[in-house]
Amino acid sequence: MHGFPDSHHLWRHQVPALTSAGFRCVAPTLRGFGASDRPEGGPEAYHPAKHVGDLLELLARLDVDRFHLVGHDWGSGVAQGLAHAVTDRVRSLSLLSVGHLTANLEAGWEQRQRSWYMLLFQLAGVAEDWLARDDFAQLREMLAEHPDAESVIERCARRGADGRPERLPGGAAAGGPVRRGPVGAAASGGRSGDGRLVDGRPLPDRALDVPYG
Prior knowledge:
Helices cover 35% and strands 6% of the residues. The chain is mainly alpha-helical.
């Protein structure tokens, strides 16, 4: 699972290596990101539990039982939610960029200060306007080391019907119980927006037509 402000395209370098090593890879674009649909309902429609429901439906459609799980950034929290929901199906869990929720909660005040943007992103309209100000100066600073920064900013610059930049993906912060557990090496997976898996194999009809819960 990718993070903000990415899509399945994030894994374009890893998927070929993993498929060459014999892994089946599935890397969805999470709801509200990239060119995916955007469910109505405000921030609650993007709660991590909703993402977990999407992924469980996707795994069922692909007939996947047990799996390795990789999450980056926002996708790290989603991966933890999925691992918590179906612990017995997860072979391994790898968290990139954003660590285990327990570690974040126990890291102290300095880490909370570094996570200020998580609060900002809860404020619909305010976050978009702030990031878009001065030709997306704030977003450019946040993405200074992102290899695809310009394409991301171009996508965010598209205006909606209200004249504001397109909505930020994400939404309500993760809630519920936090479970301690091992974090190990894993394989990830992927899908492109053109109806094909990232590794090039065609999809069955409607295999990934996953309705929002």
